[in-house]
């Protein structure tokens, strides 16, 4: 049991430290960019910069535009980049979720072409699973894919909540190709060109006033059969691969607010006295430290297992489940400590660039996206602990006969 | 980075689990409780034969010379099995105190006897309700090594032959002393304990002869408790795992409303929450184990973190396991209360959660 770098890893750490020092934006007291499209541009610039230096997709093979290194190198990278103010997780959906599916399910030369462009941030990808009638129960989706005699597919239907779709070049879309078999059997997954005819993206305004997620309408959008990911009717297995990678990516990326809370405790005052001496604050600091440290150490455990050749298990659900609610609780508690001034949502005035005011408004989304808290508990109960499923109304019948809204 | 136990350590753990599954079913704890025994002598001697007591004691003192990591995995299994024995008193506390602050003569004298399981030791720190581990004791030690005072909630105090006692030195600092209990002026009285399988004593010390640990400093007790906190955390996590498993097996075979209780989502989500609390505690215990085994400066924070999460996780797992058993859970017959009681015992033995939360704050805000 140790945290030591091997000599080779230590050298890699030194190398990226030097590079980051020259190239990454230091953390400052100045306002971070909040406006959405400016943030997006900033993220693209950062990804392109690191790709040009050979630091994109560290653990992907070189032929796909990666660096041909290991997950350990990626971990070292994320530890070091965390000291800087760069949006290093911004494109996690494309690279973390879609990338592995492309690697696994496409053929050359398409595979190398798509992955190289994705790694170089020439193309940005989104994940089109959820629909108005199918979110938690995503396998209940209805967007249809029908194959014509020439082998091409026609996609019709609607997706919703698609993060980043308005900016995206490609997406991974899960469709129903057969309604006469049971719901998990009739799904097929595809790559879709988001700029092609028959695909229309409409941004949705979020409760935090952002417009990051979108509705996507498909109207006879044509997809060639080489864009199929996995077997016809094998969409659910392909989707599970995407979701499994999502868990690993997300566990590391979901913010929990602890660092900001700690900074607040160190610097803020309550009624003119250092807030860090307040017993309630000290109690919360200890509680949240334990959760933060526990999730991080849990990630190291999961990471060790993966580095030894294992698969990221459903245990990854813990990180997201804990972090989302904890971040929301931290935001709420900290705003309460600020008293009446907590209501000021202005980064020039509010602590930590209004982190807590922002967080109280975006954390509800974190507890929903990528599987709600309730679904995470179901996953832990059924897939980790092996508890029996609830009686279900959709088992053993054809999809078209399942009651739905 | 390799944040896992080695194959060898995992083997020790699985052997220990197998042994305890056979030799230490929950009835063993129940027997100790019902017979008012001090502990399970039979199990104690079997464990002695396996060499666990000397696991982390250097070979020159009769131990096996293995490290803390081996001890951590054993602790987890003892916790899972609810072992009613004074292992922690001897191994996590008395032993460690000697290793940390004993001189050669003191080690020579006591370690081989602990390693060989020839004696039972206890640790006596608290004096009044509300005492914290860092409270300055009222019990005094004179220049010529005589103790006066009273210690309460002394785990294994009725059976112990020797005690590690905290006292106030003439300099007004805490000092840890070795005290042989079979001497005039030393009185013991049993007090009922929440965990009836881990009995408590009150020690009244009236001009008794004690010997300070030779290299004891004002920091020794804290260091000792850090080490013990990590080891206890593994016991607590073992207990969490057993309680979780118990609740799941019961609800899978218990029917209500025409279906197994374990299919109700309220019950499944309860288990998911228990699992999350347990995993957080386990991961923090891992980190504590790493800090302990590598003598890292992070130990102080890591130990406090492991302790707070283990205290909370075992309470949650033991009480929700009981809840999931319905009325059966509230009976003496069912084993739910064994975990519930043990969870209380383990979370109090080194001072309660508020003390350790305060330690976390001190460590986190130290640089200020
Ligand atoms: C910010 C954000 C970004 C997103 N990005 C994407 C994206 O990029 N791509 C994509 O495909 N999707 C995305 N989503 C969609 C997200 O995955 C869904 O919102 C989520 O899975 C929940 O589905 P739903 O909204 O249909 O809610 P519903 O499924 O209708 O759930 C409503 C409530 O019922 C509960 N519930 C449902 N089923 C159960 C059950 N079996 N047991 C207990 N409770 C249950 C839910 O927990 C929830 O509280 C995003 C969502 C958000 C908020």
Structural topology:
The complex is a heterodimer of chains A (405) and B (368).
Chain A: H1 7-23, H2 36-52, H3 71-81, H4 92-105, H5 110-119, E1 125-128, E2 144-147, E3 153-163, E4 170-176, E5 187-193, E6 199-203, E7 213-223, E8 228-229, H6 235-253, H7 258-267, E9 269-270, E10 273-274, H8 279-307, H9 317-338, H10 351-366, H11 373-384
Parallel strand pairs in A: 1-4
Antiparallel strand pairs in A: 2-3, 3-7, 4-5, 5-8, 6-7, 9-10
Helix pairs in contact in A: 1-3, 4-5, 4-6, 6-9, 7-8, 8-9, 9-10, 9-11
Chain B: H1 7-23, H2 26-35, H3 41-50, H4 68-80, H5 87-101, H6 104-115, E1 121-124, E2 140-141, E3 146-155, E4 162-168, E5 174-180, E6 186-191, E7 200-212, H7 220-253, E8 255-256, E9 259-260, H8 265-293, H9 299-324, H10 336-348, H11 353-364
Parallel strand pairs in B: 1-4
Antiparallel strand pairs in B: 2-3, 3-7, 4-5, 5-7, 6-7, 8-9
Helix pairs in contact in B: 1-4, 4-7, 5-6, 5-7, 7-8, 7-9, 7-10, 8-9, 9-10, 9-11
């Amino acid at each position: 049991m140790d945290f030591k770098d091997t000599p080779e890893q230590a050298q890699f750490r030194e190398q990226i430290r030097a590079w980051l020092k020259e190239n990454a934006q230091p953390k400052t007291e100045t306002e971070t960019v909040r406006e959405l499209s400016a943030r997006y541009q900033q993220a693209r610039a950062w990804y392109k910069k690191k790709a040009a230096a050979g630091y994109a997709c560290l653990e992907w093979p070189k032929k796909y535009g990666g660096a041909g290194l290991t997950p350990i190198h990626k971990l070292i990278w994320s530890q070091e980049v965390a000291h800087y103010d760069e949006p290093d997780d911004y494109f996690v959906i494309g690279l973390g979720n879609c990338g592995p599916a492309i690697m696994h399910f496409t053929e050359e030369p398409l595979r190398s072409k798509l992955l190289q462009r994705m790694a170089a941030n020439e193309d940005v990808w989104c994940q089109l699973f959820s629909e108005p009638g199918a979110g938690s129960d995503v396998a209940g989706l209805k967007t249809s894919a029908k194959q014509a005699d020439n082998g091409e597919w026609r996609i019709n239907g609607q997706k919703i909540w698609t993060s980043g779709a308005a900016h995206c070049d490609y997406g991974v879309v899960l469709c129903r190709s057969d309604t006469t078999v049971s719901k998990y059997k009739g799904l097929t997954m595809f790559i879709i060109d988001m700029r092609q005819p028959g695909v229309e993206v409409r941004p949705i305004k979020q409760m935090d006033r952002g417009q990051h997620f979108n509705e996507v309408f498909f109207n006879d959008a044509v997809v060639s059969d080489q864009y199929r990911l996995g077997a016809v009717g094998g969409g659910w297995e392909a989707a599970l691969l995407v979701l499994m990678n999502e868990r690993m990516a997300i566990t590391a990326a979901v913010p929990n607010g602890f660092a900001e809370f700690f900074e607040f405790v160190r610097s803020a005052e309550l009624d003119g006295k250092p807030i860090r001496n307040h017993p309630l604050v000290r109690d919360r600091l200890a509680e949240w430290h334990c959760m933060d440290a526990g999730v991080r150490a849990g990630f190291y455990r999961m990471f060790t297992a993966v580095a030894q050749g294992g698969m990221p298990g459903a245990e990854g659900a813990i990180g997201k489940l804990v972090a989302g609610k904890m971040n929301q609780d931290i935001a709420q508690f900290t705003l309460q400590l600020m008293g009446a001034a907590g209501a000021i949502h202005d980064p020039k005035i509010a602590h930590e660039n209004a982190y807590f005011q922002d967080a109280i408004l975006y954390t509800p989304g974190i507890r929903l996206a990528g599987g709600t808290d309730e679904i995470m508990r179901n996953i832990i109960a059924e897939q980790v602990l092996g508890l029996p499923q609830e009686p279900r109304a959709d088992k053993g019948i054809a999809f078209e006969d399942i009651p739905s809204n | 980075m390799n944040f896992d136990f080695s194959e060898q350590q995992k083997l020790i753990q699985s052997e220990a689990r197998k042994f305890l599954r056979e030799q230490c079913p929950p009835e063993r704890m129940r027997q100790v409780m019902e017979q008012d025994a001090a502990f399970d002598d039979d199990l104690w001697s079997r464990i002695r034969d396996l060499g666990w007591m000397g696991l982390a004691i250097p070979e020159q003192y009769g131990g096996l010379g293995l490290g803390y990591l081996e001890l951590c995995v054993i602790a987890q299994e003892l916790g899972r099995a609810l072992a009613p024995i004074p292992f922690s008193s001897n191994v996590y506390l008395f032993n460690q105190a000697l290793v940390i602050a004993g001189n050669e003569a003191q080690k020579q004298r006591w370690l081989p006897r602990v390693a060989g399981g020839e004696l039972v030791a206890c640790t006596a720190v608290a004096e009044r309700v509300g005492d914290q581990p860092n409270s300055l004791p009222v019990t005094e030690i004179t220049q010529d090594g005589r103790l006066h005072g009273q210690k309460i909630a002394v785990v294994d105090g009725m059976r112990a032959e020797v005690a590690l006692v905290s006292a106030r030195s003439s300099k007004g600092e805490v000092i840890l002393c070795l005290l042989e209990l079979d001497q005039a002026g030393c009185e013991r009285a049993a007090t009922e304990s929440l965990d009836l399988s881990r009995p408590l004593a009150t020690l009244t010390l009236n001009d008794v002869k004690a010997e300070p640990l030779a290299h004891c400093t004002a920091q020794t007790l804290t260091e000792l408790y850090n080490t013990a906190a990590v080891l206890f955390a593994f016991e607590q996590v073992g207990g969490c795992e057993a309680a979780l498993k118990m609740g799941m097996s019961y609800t899978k075979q218990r029917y209500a409303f025409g279906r197994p209780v374990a299919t109700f989502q309220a019950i499944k989500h309860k288990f998911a929450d228990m699992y999350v609390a347990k995993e957080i505690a386990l991961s923090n215990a891992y980190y504590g184990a790493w800090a302990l085994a590598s003598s890292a400066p992070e130990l102080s924070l890591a130990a406090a973190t492991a302790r707070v999460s283990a205290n909370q996780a075992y309470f949650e797992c033991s009480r929700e396991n009981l809840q999931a058993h319905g009325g059966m859970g509230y009976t003496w017959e069912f084993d739910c209360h064994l975990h519930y009681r043990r969870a209380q015992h383990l979370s109090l033995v080194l001072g309660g959660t508020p003390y350790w939360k305060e330690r976390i704050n001190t460590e986190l805000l130290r640089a200020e």
